[in-house]
Specification:
Oligomer: single chain
Mean pLDDT: 86
Low-confidence stretches: none
Radius of gyration: 24 Å
Number of strands: 6
Length: about 140
């Protein structure tokens, strides 16, 4: 009887340990995917900040859809998880202190979608670009 109770306790502890490992690995996977999605969005926005104002406002210059692949153990760009993204540049309706910034600013919205197993996930990032921003100092 004592052996049976002892084996039962060991069995429950082992099951809890394996459950903790599974949950921990899944949590780490989701965190890794979140960080990669953030890196992709930041890369797109920082690239746009270096374009000239004419390039930002030209509707055909910057692609609106993109994909990025990620495999932590594979070669870059091969197989693995596929992130699908969209990029939208729109005018800003900002009137502050009787100054209209509609012609001088653009709102950039980057959205990335991907799937973790059967769980659909997405992240979105918004930022502003100004006509008198960084690109005038670099080029």
């Amino acid at each position: 009887m004592e052996v049976t109770v002892g084996l039962g306790i060991v069995g429950v502890a082992t099951a809890a340990l394996f459950s903790a490992f599974t949950t921990g690995f899944f949590t780490m996977r989701m965190a890794r995917e979140n960080i990669r999605a953030t890196q992709i969005m930041l890369e797109k926005v920082e690239t746009i900040r270096l374009y000239s104002w004419q390039q930002v406002t030209n509707t055909g210059f910057i692609p609106t859809n993109f994909t990025a692949k990620y495999d932590p153990v594979g070669q870059i760009g091969e197989g693995g998880l596929v992130y699908r993204g969209s990029l939208k540049i729109s005018p800003v309706n900002a009137i502050e202190n009787n100054a209209d910034y509609t012609d001088s600013m653009r709102l950039i919205t980057v959205r990335v979608d991907w799937e973790t197993g059967s769980l659909r996930r997405h992240r979105e990032f918004k930022s502003y670009v100004s006509r008198f921003g960084m690109q005038d100092y670099i080029y």
